[in-house]
Design brief:
The complex is a heterodimer of chains A (about 260) and B (about 350). By secondary structure, chain A is an alpha/beta fold. Chain A has helices at about 5, 70-80, 95-105, 135-145, 150-155, 170-175, 180-195, 200, 220-230, 245-250, 250-260; strands spanning about 10, 20, 45-50, 90-95, 110-115, 205-215, 235-240. With about 350 residues, chain B is α+β, with helices and mostly antiparallel strands. The chains are: A alpha/beta (about 260), B alpha+beta (about 350). The interface of A and B includes residues 149, 156 and 174 of A.
Chain lengths: ~260, ~350
């Protein structure tokens, strides 16, 4: 199986330059459904699922390999080489912001511009750094994944029983979004929420834009500011939006910010 | 409970207040996430919230609420968005059901499932070891059997044996042949279970006829009381694994000897015609009933147990596996006249 099948890569758009969209923890490339089409006239858009998510090849997942964000960055670099990306735009949401940062360091020149949507270089508080979560919070998250599989699997892939009001929204539709394997999600959660990429930020050479929501429970404003302050020459746009997923809750603002930047 | 577009609680009923320990007026204006445990908050933000945006509702998700004194309350939650005609989000309605017992039950189920999965894994591992053991044992038994077999040949060809001695040697030859067949079948079966399957080395480099005649002769020699009427009529070389086809005939003949009426002849036919290679073995006796016929090729099927019946019930199974490996199949017809096993395989095989 090739990389394009492994990562369920979807190419659209008419432009010469490529714009790669990477989804974060908990969902898949559907995260970009309200943003990516806006760029199809001027870019070749590249959407993909991380291995373990959405329509990716689950058999390609292996717990040893995917024990750190590096593996996801390696996958991204492989994908970029396969598509012969040079000077492309990378748009990464949540944990994929850091995956893009790592990939840009591993393959200089592949991405000229990085757009980091709701990024966090470290989720856990540290001396002189506020990530938004305590170590105990994250331990609670991981423990709950351990002892409550069924609960999580409901949470991860909600079972929509008969829904007489909306027969069109049957199981098929429900399951077509954000499909996540429970066991893989457990490890991805660990890899994501224990990651610390603060040291990598200083080496970023690509032009960088941070898109930050004013009210984000996962990556608060100061976390986004830390990313901006650590990447030389980067800028930040603060959206009047709530939540961690402006790509869905405020797509117009996200589109406008990316457009102004590229 | 209803949330405003900014995620803050706009309205909450008395039950929400009872569940959380917050007053209704305290709840209004509070960000919904404040009511969630940290894991639930993370999943609300990363999974539930995107799903809501994409499909407008999410039903029956497990979440832990946190009361005003920090206690977790396991709940099931249904969430649905209300939008106006332009598609703008008006409210998000949240229905929270306490599910302490249900969640405890689910956790219990998961624990039991994990335990039985572990047991199953352990059992599978034991089974695997056992099959490896059988495979190794079968393989190691071949050598002493081969020695006994050549010893018997030496005795019967070079030594001047009494009539009684000749009878004993011939009986011994029959036993060794039978033992070798059993070992071959067990070995093939164990290999199949270990994932190796039946391996073929097929070619059309030599004639198949003499191989089949040899099998008939060997079995005839140790079953002198039975009539085997054999017509092997093969003009051309057949592209097949000759040793395997010989093994198949040996298994089919062994079956006919065991289950066929001893006073009626066994018929063996081998021919190639109209693009097919056909091998048939037929015996007289009571017909096989339908129930038995369906299970005939399953491993360890031994039909009705008769006092004189021996064997593991692997012969027909292995024969059918050999047939399949050659792209062919074995069919059975059985009536009061005869029980007939017919193997057919296409002569021209597409190169793959």
């Amino acid at each position: 199986m090739g990389i394009l099948e492994r990562n369920n890569v979807n190419l659209r758009g008419l432009g010469e330059r490529s714009m790669v969209f990477a989804h974060g923890f908990g969902c898949d490339q559907n995260m970009w459904r309200m943003v990516a089409p806006a760029f199809e006239n001027n870019f070749r858009t590249v959407l993909f699922d991380h291995v373990g998510a959405g329509g990716s090849d689950l058999s390609a997942y292996n717990a040893q390999r995917y024990a750190s964000l590096d593996a996801y960055a390696d996958d991204l670099v492989e994908l970029g080489r396969d598509l012969e990306l040079a000077g492309a735009v990378f748009v990464g949401h949540s944990v994929s912001a850091m995956i893009g940062v790592l990939a840009s360091l591993k393959a200089p020149g592949m991405f000229a511009d990085l757009v980091l949507v709701s990024p966090s270089a470290r989720y856990i508080d540290d001396h002189g750094y506020r990530g938004g979560f305590s170590r105990a919070d994250i331990d609670e998250l991981l423990a709950s994944l351990d002892d409550n599989h069924l609960g999580w699997s409901n949470m991860m892939a909600p079972v929509i029983m008969g829904n007489p009001d909306r027969p069109e929204l049957g199981e098929e539709l429900t399951n077509s979004f954000c499909r996540t394997d429970t066991v893989i999600a457990r490890q991805f959660a660990e890899v994501t929420f224990l990651s610390d990429n603060r040291k990598d930020l200083a080496s970023v050479a690509a032009r960088t834009l941070v898109i930050q929501c004013r009210d984000d429970a996962i990556a608060p404003v100061e976390v986004g500011e830390h990313v901006r302050d650590s990447i030389t020459g980067s800028e930040m746009v603060l959206l009047e939006a709530t939540g961690h997923c402006p790509n869905l809750s405020a797509p117009d603002q996200v589109i406008a910010a990316i457009r102004a930047f590229v | 409970m209803s949330l405003s577009p900014d995620g803050r609680i706009a309205r909450a009923n008395k039950r929400m207040s009872d569940k959380t320990g917050y007053g209704r007026d305290e709840l209004v204006g509070m960000p919904f996430q404040t009511l969630l445990s940290v894991p639930s908050r993370i999943f609300y933000e990363t999974n539930i919230s995107p799903l809501l945006r994409m499909q407008g509702f999410v039903d029956e998700v497990a979440m832990d609420l946190r009361t005003n004194d920090g206690k977790p309350v396991p709940c099931l939650v249904n969430v649905a968005e209300r939008r106006d005609a332009d598609g703008s989000l008006l409210f998000t309605d949240v229905v929270v059901l306490r599910a302490v017992e249900r969640r405890r039950y689910e956790r219990d189920l998961v624990r039991k499932r994990d335990a039985s999965r572990r047991e199953l894994d352990a059992a599978a591992e034991t089974a695997q070891l056992r099959e490896q053991f059988v495979a190794v044992l079968g393989h190691d038994l071949r050598n002493p059997l081969a020695s006994i077999s050549s010893g018997i040949r030496l005795l019967s060809q070079r030594e001047d044996l009494s009539e009684r001695g000749q009878t004993v040697v011939s009986l011994m030859a029959g036993s060794v042949l039978r033992a070798s067949e059993l070992v071959d079948n067990v070995l093939d079966f164990a290999r199949g279970r270990l994932g190796g399957g039946i391996t073929l080395s097929r070619n059309a480099d030599g004639p198949l006829g003499p191989v089949l005649e040899q099998v008939v002769a060997e079995i005839q020699s140790v079953n002198s009381g039975r009539v085997i009427d054999s017509k092997i009529d093969l003009d051309e070389n057949i592209d097949c694994d000759r040793v395997r086809i010989g093994q198949m005939l040996s298994n089919l003949l062994g079956n006919a000897i065991t289950h066929g009426a001893s006073d009626q002849p066994i018929e063996v036919r081998a021919l190639s015609d109209a693009g097919l290679f056909v091998l048939e073995v037929a015996n007289g006796g009571a017909p096989i009933d339908d129930a038995a016929r369906r299970k005939l090729f399953q491993p360890f099927f031994r039909g009705e147990v008769r006092p004189n019946s021996t064997g593991l019930g692997l012969g027909l199974h292995i024969a059918s596996e050999i047939a399949k490996a050659h792209g062919g199949q074995i069919d059975v017809t059985s009536d009061t006249q005869a029980t007939r096993f017919r193997f057919e395989m296409p002569l021209v095989v597409a190169q793959s």
